Amino acid sequence: MDFALPDDLRTLQRAVRDFAQREIAPVATELDRDPRFPRATLRRMGEMGLLGILTPEDYGGLGLGYLAYAVLLEEIAAADASHATIASVTNGMPQSLILAHGSQAQRERWLPRLAAGEAIGAFCLSEPHAGSDAAALRTRARRVEGGYRLDGSKAWITSGGEADLYLVLAKTDPEAGARGISAFVLERDTPGLSFGAPERKLGQHAAITTSVDFDDAFVPEEQRLGEEGQGFVMAMSALDGGRVGIAAQALGIARAAFAAAARHAEEREAFGRPIREFQGVGFKLADMATRIEAARLLTHRAAWLLDRGERATKEVSMAKLDASEAAVFVCDAAVQVFGGYGYSADYPVERYLRDARVTTLYEGTSEIQRVVISRQIHRETAR
Ligand code: CAA
């Protein structure tokens, strides 16, 4: 057993850390206060291959595995969580689904643009009344000559209105439950496709989130991904990869909060000595560091299993559950270490806490991760 990252991945990790700290971290506070989609830094990330990490080199990506994906996303998130969310969504579901289920023509049409960051991808599953119960979605795709007409509304779509390509799950057979859902790729300029105003959120302000609405939007048949009725299972298996990305993102935010708290505990003095010397602070830092290390081990192991081509639904959900809960714990503890300054927008830790909070919600809440884990345990036990 070897816990060390491969040398080439460590070299890449250092390069991405340098880039993220040099070019992304300095704009994070400003983007939090004055939210806008960070096109300039996303363009730079695209040039470095960071928006096509998993996509094979043949289609213009870096062709790396999930371990590399987790390591690099952690670096981006340690600089700014919003960049990591946008990167995680465009790297994840659209590209992995097109790669796994697209025809050769579909792969050639969409993957090179996405992998280079020339196009940003969005994933449209959730609806206003169907978040955790994703199969209850109501967006309808009716068959017409040459394709489908879509009607309905998606909610909480990362990069809504900003993304160029939308991977949309819609019901082609409303009587067939999860087996009546199909996947489509829509371009932003599709007539009948529109976007709501950006949601006002607790954190991750630059990861613009909107509704995506379909009003008789025509999608040609050649823009359906996979067969009719396969969409839900495709989306669920892609979420196994996506959730590793969210776990890694949570780790990055937690790491940044921990580093700030550890530094503050060295520099800040009370009662004539650095506050680190008080057990109340020292033990807090110890717990924070331990939670981060444990979550990283779970995340890297889940990624490693995916890289071996194994189904890792349980391990991925464990990683996502643990890393996101650890991130909220660590960021909250960092605020406590900072004392009153932790509550001030002049210091970054309050933003880390706000940014981390959603990691226990999106790509499946902590409760849904527990549902997934317990179902897998049942399957293993009943075998
Ligand atoms: N891999 C492969 N297949 C899977 C699978 C997986 N991980 N999970 C489920 N499936 C298959 C099942 O085997 C089943 O197939 P069969 O019909 O052949 O048996 C089918 O999918 C339906 O599965 P379930 O019966 O388990 O479905 P369910 O309705 O009970 O729901 C759920 C399961 C786990 C609760 C699911 O609805 C879920 O994950 N909900 C959370 C939704 C979510 O994560 N949304 C994230 C939105 S994207 C986002 O947040 C992006 C962003 O902005 C950052």
Structural commentary:
The chain has 383 residues and is of the alpha+beta class. The protein folds into three domains: 7-115, Acyl-CoA dehydrogenase/oxidase, N-terminal domain (Butyryl-Coa Dehydrogenase, subunit A, domain 1, Orthogonal Bundle); 121-229, Butyryl-CoA Dehydrogenase, subunit A, domain 2, CATH 2.40.110; 238-382, Butyryl-CoA Dehydrogenase, subunit A, domain 3, CATH 1.20.140.10. The protein has eleven helices and ten strands. The strands form three sheets. It has a four-stranded mixed sheet. The protein has a four-stranded antiparallel sheet with strand order 2-3-7-6, covered by helices on one side. Helix 3 (66-79) packs across helix 7 (231-267), helix 7 (231-267) runs antiparallel to helix 8 (279-307) and helix 7 packs antiparallel against helix 10 (349-357). The radius of gyration is 21 Å and the shape is globular. Acetoacetyl-coenzyme A (CAA) binds next to helix 4, helix 7 and helix 11. Acetoacetyl-coenzyme A binds next to helix 4, helix 7 and helix 11.
